[in-house]
């Protein structure tokens, strides 16, 4: 009798993972695309390209509408500048066809980090050590009389 190899570290067997991912794709609309989106894009959409974050871009075959399916949670701040211009209709050609190159003064794209551990926290913030800098002489605190 041959026994199936037991998963390590309490992981689920590999057979159950595809079913879980399938069910999550059906019901979890905020994380990537759902089956309805996948089917609609297959029927009506034309694939245009992919950005460095894995987001996939499509355009409608009949109209001028443009779509993005996110690689991970739906977060519009993960769209880089070149694709942002295309998805909002500011540029006719997508960055894949236009050979988009960022200007020398542009910083590399970074998604919005608000609400994460990497978010900016100034001195004096409750979530950062240190004290708030003292105010200078040009400021006088208001107090009711």
Helix content: 10-25%
Alpha carbon gap, first and last residue:
89 Å
Q: What Rg is obtained from the alpha carbons, in whole angstroms?
A: 24 Å
Which geometry do the CA atoms define? extended
Number of strands: 3
Percent of residues in beta strands? 5-15%
Largest sheet: 3 strands, antiparallel
Instruction: State the strand order across the main sheet.
Output: 1-2-3
Mean model confidence by pLDDT: 80
Determine the number of helices (DSSP H or I, runs of at least 4 residues).
4
H and E order: HHEEEHH
Structural class: alpha+beta
Unreliable runs: 1-7
Characterization of this structure:
This protein is extended. The protein is α+β, with helices and mostly antiparallel strands and 145 residues long. The model is unreliable at 1-7 (pLDDT under 50). The chain has a three-stranded antiparallel sheet with strand order 1-2-3. β1 and β2 (56-60) form a beta hairpin. It has a domain at 19-98. The chain has four helices and three strands.
């Amino acid at each position: 009798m041959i026994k199936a190899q037991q998963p390590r570290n309490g992981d689920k067997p590999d057979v159950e993972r595809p079913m879980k991912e399938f069910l999550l794709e059906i019901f979890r609309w905020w994380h990537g695309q759902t089956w309805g989106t996948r089917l609609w894009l297959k029927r009506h959409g034309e694939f245009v390209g992919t950005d460095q974050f894995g987001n996939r871009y499509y355009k409608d075959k009949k109209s001028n509408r443009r779509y993005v399916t996110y690689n991970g949670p739906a977060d519009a701040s993960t769209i880089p500048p070149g694709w942002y211009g295309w998805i909002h209709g500011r540029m006719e050609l997508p960055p894949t066809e236009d050979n988009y190159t960022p200007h020398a003064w542009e910083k590399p794209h970074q998604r919005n980090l608000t609400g994460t551990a990497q978010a900016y926290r100034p001195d004096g913030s409750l979530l950062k050590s240190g004290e708030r800098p003292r105010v200078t002489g040009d400021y006088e605190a208001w107090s009711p009389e």
